């Protein structure tokens, strides 16, 4: 890798613009030397292997894009499980996520410039023609201003930027006459009414046809928006202005940024997550670098790079200084309160912050970038993907993963900055995991739960816009790309804008902001990019030496609490503050500490105990802060325990032809029957029971014998259905919801409860599928007749399914004894039951709203806005003698702490699978048919192996 980095601010040879150009040109040299002196550390990857990985990325892109074009286009997105387009209004609403869909072929527009980066110029030309022919921007649909800007306006501008580049080269796009730019301009004008507020901050949503506040528009009543939503416009809007000469767009985006800057919390220099667009008051006063704020910071720095306006760099540096002072706790990045920045606002991080190491590279602050990236990588190694949120002790907080690209983005920038081949290995792992766990026959499916490997019928457009670009560029050499990536900057959606825009149409008047910064210390302003020779002083092991101490930060035992213990905790002579997890309501010493912290204990009439904090009653300000943190921890603890009471979702994986484990459906567990988290998975062919509701003795026992029975929900208790199919000889059951159209995408999963009686007699595993997931199995039966599934706590590796480890049942003789071995003994069952009961004891915390001064605010819920103090929490009597930590310890129940690469379950599979007598089914097949099936399996396996190389 010889170049300094596409849109890598510090290091990009930026043409034609004075202030940035000088420093960039100089530092570019240092990056070159940093990359060329690499001699030790991770083994360098040779050109051949890089090319192989690059080709694999190309093949994966073809799979994703090809399936979108074939099965979904002109819809906005592909639904990769059901292999059709997602058309807004035709699918159950998913809430805000759907605001990205404007019936404007979102994925096609978002993919335009990826096609050129991936050297698919011919396909790009076709795609542009399709956009011009088919896309309508005048739909009566309410869309997110932010998403439409970054994905659609950005997509059109990225497409235009590369179309004119190609046209100039003289081979492709010779017919192009700025049509994409005209569309972008049309869209820009459609978004402008959103800015009609006194503050200049845009409304969060707009109707593409009717604008805002008209009765037909169905929007315009909102009062709040997120900081990133209002602060992530300047790159696209300025580019639009400079490309077209219409200055209004850049003016509007600048005004919104100016307003946000004015409203920053002046003592901490931080911004909150949401702001009132009319009054400018902070609605959520927590502050981090992830969801809700992320790209506001990104755009300040990148606006400086693209537009050369110093005020953006000054603002960025001021915020960056605050971020590093309060939010950065290497390797963690933890939200704090804008007014009390020493106080953590939560004990978990979200996946969106994974972009931040990339931004730190652009800023030139490599060390913390390496640290945070390494921590994130270890979380990924544990769960295969970055869960949407994870705790400070690296357990899953929100288990979804919609194939977000931020980590790949940071990996790319770190590789560009360090040249360390370690980052190529990281990229290779990302590719492997995508192919292993997210690839389905019709594209790539988002992970519904990284712990179980279950899927969501969703492939977001950013997966094509960003993921493939960063992964391809990671492995590409300069000659693999048909243009110079250094001449462009990446928007937050990875769209490419040319840096020459900095000197074009600079007609927008800039606010004179000099006086605003006089209060700030000069050291806040780094006017030069760091010298990478100092960062990497001829030491190729530099990055490795930073990573090394973090190697075990996420280990198999799920260590608790590397969360920063505030300095005050160690003040001499003082005991460390009481942690919520250690609190016992019967311990007089603890009650004394509560009092000192201003926390009082109120015994409620219903027997519960309520905690209320009055910061003003604390013995000192430090005790008041400790009290605030204690209350916050108590709330976190409680919500965590409430979550842990729930059995985690289970997986139904279709393993027979042509699915071969690629389709994984999210299933609800049952509170009775075989617990799949403690026992080996159950595998078998499916058969519908008669009667279908399973509410009486089955009339078709021969059909369900030795199989997994399908039963419809309704008309009797779940346990009754289970008993009826068990009596007929079924080895498992899947209850399918009778509410047509229901889906785990839109409805919360639940556990099937028993019937209030003893359910120990039910030995078979039972899972629940919503109607949409259930119909995937029913459709498969219609199409292929014989459908074999695996019921388990998490999806199994497809290689394990096919590599002879789990040989399809029809190849092996059946052995009923083995099946019996799989049934748990009733003794085990009762043990399991009691284990669950212990775990289900938890703290119930209720919140009591009380007025209090803003300065002592506390997050009232782990993911909600901070509530103003006084803070209150109540605990039920059952917990008064309970040490909450005991209940919190990760158990095999939720599997969060099991290393997915090293599961004991897989081990037992191997042992048992090596036994040729193992059988999961009893199907008798003629030998020809067996061989034909087996050949098909081998072919599929070979294909898969090729895929995964
Ligand atoms: C993308 O749409 C953009 O990167 C945005 O800034 C936030 N993240 C999503 C993808 O995760």
TrEMBL record:
<comment type="similarity">
    <text>Belongs to the glycosyl hydrolase 47 family.</text>
</comment>
<dbReference type="InterPro" id="IPR046450">
    <property type="entry name" value="PA_dom_sf"/>
</dbReference>
<dbReference type="Pfam" id="PF01532">
    <property type="entry name" value="Glyco_hydro_47"/>
</dbReference>
<dbReference type="GO" id="GO:0005975">
    <property type="term" value="P:carbohydrate metabolic process"/>
</dbReference>
<keyword id="KW-0106">Calcium</keyword>
<dbReference type="InterPro" id="IPR012341">
    <property type="entry name" value="6hp_glycosidase-like_sf"/>
</dbReference>
<dbReference type="GO" id="GO:0006986">
    <property type="term" value="P:response to unfolded protein"/>
</dbReference>
<dbReference type="GO" id="GO:0036503">
    <property type="term" value="P:ERAD pathway"/>
</dbReference>
<dbReference type="Pfam" id="PF02225">
    <property type="entry name" value="PA"/>
</dbReference>
<feature type="domain" description="PA">
    <location>
        <begin position="689"/>
        <end position="775"/>
    </location>
</feature>
<feature type="binding site">
    <location>
        <position position="492"/>
    </location>
    <ligand>
        <name>Ca(2+)</name>
    </ligand>
</feature>
<keyword id="KW-0834">Unfolded protein response</keyword>
<keyword id="KW-0325">Glycoprotein</keyword>
<keyword id="KW-0479">Metal-binding</keyword>
<dbReference type="GO" id="GO:1904380">
    <property type="term" value="P:endoplasmic reticulum mannose trimming"/>
</dbReference>
<dbReference type="InterPro" id="IPR001382">
    <property type="entry name" value="Glyco_hydro_47"/>
</dbReference>
<comment type="function">
    <text>Involved in endoplasmic reticulum-associated degradation (ERAD). Accelerates the glycoprotein ERAD by proteasomes, by catalyzing mannose trimming from Man8GlcNAc2 to Man7GlcNAc2 in the N-glycans. May also participate in mannose trimming from all glycoproteins and not just misfolded ones targeted to ERAD. May have alpha 1,2-mannosidase activity.</text>
</comment>
<keyword id="KW-0732">Signal</keyword>
<protein>
    <recommendedName>
        <fullName>alpha-1,2-Mannosidase</fullName>
        <ecNumber>3.2.1.-</ecNumber>
    </recommendedName>
</protein>
<feature type="region of interest" description="Disordered">
    <location>
        <begin position="849"/>
        <end position="925"/>
    </location>
</feature>
<keyword id="KW-0326">Glycosidase</keyword>
<feature type="active site">
    <location>
        <position position="294"/>
    </location>
</feature>
<dbReference type="GO" id="GO:0005509">
    <property type="term" value="F:calcium ion binding"/>
</dbReference>
<dbReference type="GO" id="GO:0004571">
    <property type="term" value="F:mannosyl-oligosaccharide 1,2-alpha-mannosidase activity"/>
</dbReference>
<keyword id="KW-0256">Endoplasmic reticulum</keyword>
<feature type="active site" description="Proton donor">
    <location>
        <position position="147"/>
    </location>
</feature>
<feature type="compositionally biased region" description="Low complexity">
    <location>
        <begin position="856"/>
        <end position="865"/>
    </location>
</feature>
<dbReference type="InterPro" id="IPR044674">
    <property type="entry name" value="EDEM1/2/3"/>
</dbReference>
<dbReference type="InterPro" id="IPR003137">
    <property type="entry name" value="PA_domain"/>
</dbReference>
<dbReference type="GO" id="GO:0016020">
    <property type="term" value="C:membrane"/>
</dbReference>
<keyword id="KW-0378">Hydrolase</keyword>
<feature type="active site">
    <location>
        <position position="406"/>
    </location>
</feature>
<dbReference type="InterPro" id="IPR037322">
    <property type="entry name" value="EDEM3_PA"/>
</dbReference>
<comment type="pathway">
    <text>Protein modification; protein glycosylation.</text>
</comment>
<feature type="compositionally biased region" description="Polar residues">
    <location>
        <begin position="866"/>
        <end position="891"/>
    </location>
</feature>
<dbReference type="InterPro" id="IPR036026">
    <property type="entry name" value="Seven-hairpin_glycosidases"/>
</dbReference>
<dbReference type="GO" id="GO:0044322">
    <property type="term" value="C:endoplasmic reticulum quality control compartment"/>
</dbReference>
<feature type="active site" description="Proton donor">
    <location>
        <position position="388"/>
    </location>
</feature>
């Amino acid at each position: 890798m010889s170049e300094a980095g596409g849109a890598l601010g510090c290091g990009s040879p930026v043409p034609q613009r004075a202030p940035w150009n000088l420093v960039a040109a100089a530092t570019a040299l240092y990056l070159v030397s940093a990359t060329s002196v690499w001699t030790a550390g991770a083994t360098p990857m040779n050109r051949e292997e890089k090319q192989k990985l690059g080709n694999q990325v190309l093949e994966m892109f073809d799979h994703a894009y090809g399936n979108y074009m074939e099965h979904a286009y002109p819809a906005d997105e592909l639904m990769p499980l059901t292999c059709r387009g997602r058309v807004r209004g035709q699918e159950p609403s998913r809430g805000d996520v759907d605001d990205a869909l404007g019936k404007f072929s979102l994925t096609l527009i978002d993919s335009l410039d990826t096609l050129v980066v991936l050297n698919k110029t011919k396909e790009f030309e076709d795609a542009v023609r399709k956009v011009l022919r088919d896309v309508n921007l005048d739909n009566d649909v309410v869309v997110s201003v932010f998403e439409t800007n970054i994905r659609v306006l950005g997509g059109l501008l990225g497409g235009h930027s590369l179309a004119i580049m190609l046209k100039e080269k003289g081979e492709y796009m010779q017919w192009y006459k700025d049509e994409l730019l005209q569309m972008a301009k049309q869209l820009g004008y459609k978004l402008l009414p959103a800015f009609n507020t006194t503050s200049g901050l845009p409304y969060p949503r707009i109707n593409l046809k009717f604008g805002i506040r008209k009765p037909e528009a169905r929007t315009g009543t909102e009062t709040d928006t997120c900081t990133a939503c209002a602060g992530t416009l300047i790159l696209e809007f300025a580019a639009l202005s400079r490309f077209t000469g219409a200055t209004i767009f850049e003016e509007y985006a600048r005004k919104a940024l100016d307003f946000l800057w004015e409203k920053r919390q002046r003592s901490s220099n931080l911004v909150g997550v949401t702001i009132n667009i009319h009054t400018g008051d902070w609605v959520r006063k927590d502050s981090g670098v992830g969801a809700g704020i992320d790209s506001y910071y990104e755009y300040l720095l990148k606006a400086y790079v693209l537009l050369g306006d110093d005020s953006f760099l000054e603002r960025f540096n001021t915020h960056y200084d605050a971020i590093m002072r309060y939010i950065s706790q290497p390797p963690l990045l933890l939200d704090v309160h804008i007014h009390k920045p020493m106080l953590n606002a939560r004990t978990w991080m979200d996946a969106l912050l994974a972009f931040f190491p990339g931004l730190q590279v652009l800023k030139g602050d490599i060390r913390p970038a390496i640290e945070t990236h390494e921590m994130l990588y270890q979380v990924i190694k544990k769960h295969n993907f970055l869960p949407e949120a994870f705790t400070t002790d690296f357990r899953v907080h929100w288990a979804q993963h919609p194939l977000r690209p931020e980590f790949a983005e940071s990996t790319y920038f770190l590789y560009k900055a360090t040249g360390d081949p370690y980052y190529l290995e990281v990229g290779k792992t990302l590719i492997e995991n995508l192919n292993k766990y997210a690839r389905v026959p019709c594209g790539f499916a988002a992970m519904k739960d990284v712990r179980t490997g279950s899927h969501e019928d969703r492939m977001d457009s950013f997966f094509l816009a960003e993921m493939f670009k960063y992964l391809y560029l990671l492995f590409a050499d300069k000659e693999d790309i048909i243009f110079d990536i250094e001449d462009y900057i990446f928007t937050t959606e990875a769209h490419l804008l040319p840096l020459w825009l900095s000197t074009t149409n600079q007609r927008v008047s800039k606010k004179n902001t000099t006086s605003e910064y006089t209060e700030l210390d000069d050291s806040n302003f780094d006017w030069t990019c760091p010298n990478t020779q100092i960062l990497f002083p001829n030491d190729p092991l530099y990055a490795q030496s930073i990573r090394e101490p973090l190697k075990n930060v996420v280990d198999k035992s799920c260590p608790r609490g590397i969360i920063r213990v505030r300095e005050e905790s160690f003040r001499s002579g003082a005991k460390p503050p009481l942690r919520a997890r250690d609190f016992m309501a019967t311990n007089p010493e603890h009650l004394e500490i509560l009092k000192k912290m201003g926390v009082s204990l109120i015994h409620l009439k219903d027997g519960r105990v309520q905690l209320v904090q009055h910061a003003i009653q604390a013995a000192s300000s430090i005790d008041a802060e400790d009290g605030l943190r204690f209350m916050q921890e108590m709330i976190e603890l409680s919500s965590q325990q409430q979550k842990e009471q729930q059995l985690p979702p289970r997986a139904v994986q279709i393993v027979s032809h042509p699915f071969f484990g690629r389709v994984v459906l999210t299933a609800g567990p049952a509170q009775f029957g075989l617990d799949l988290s403690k026992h080996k998975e159950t595998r078998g062919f499916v058969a519908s029971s008669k009667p279908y509701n399973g509410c009486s003795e089955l009339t078709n026992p021969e059909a369900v014998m030795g199989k997994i029975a399908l039963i419809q929900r309704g008309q009797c208790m779940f346990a009754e259905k289970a008993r009826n199919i068990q009596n007929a000889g079924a080895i498992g059951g899947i209850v399918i919801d009778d509410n047509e159209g229901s889906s785990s995408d839109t409805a919360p999963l639940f556990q099937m409860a028993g019937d209030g009686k003893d359910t120990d007699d039910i030995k078979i595993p039972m899972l629940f599928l919503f109607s949409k997931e259930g119909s995937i199995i029913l459709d498969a039966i219609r199409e292929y007749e014989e459908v074999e599934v695996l019921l388990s706590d998490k999806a199994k590796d497809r290689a394990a399914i096919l590599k002879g480890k789990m040989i399809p049942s029809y190849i092996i003789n059946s052995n009923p004894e083995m099946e019996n071995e799989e049934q748990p003994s009733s003794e085990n069952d009762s043990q399991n039951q009691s284990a669950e009961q212990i775990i289900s004891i938890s703290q119930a915390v209720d919140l009591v709203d009380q007025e209090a001064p803003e300065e002592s605010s506390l997050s009232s819920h782990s993911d909600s806005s901070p509530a103003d103090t006084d803070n209150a929490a109540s605990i039920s009597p059952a917990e008064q003698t309970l040490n909450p930590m005991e209940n919190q310890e990760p158990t095999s129940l939720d599997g969060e702490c099991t290393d997915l690469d090293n599961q004991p379950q897989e081990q037992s599979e191997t042992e048992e699978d090596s036994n040729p007598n193992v059988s999961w089914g009893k199907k008798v097949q003629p030998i020809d048919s067996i061989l034909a099936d087996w050949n098909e399996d081998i072919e599929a396996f070979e294909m898969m192996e090729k895929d995964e190389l």
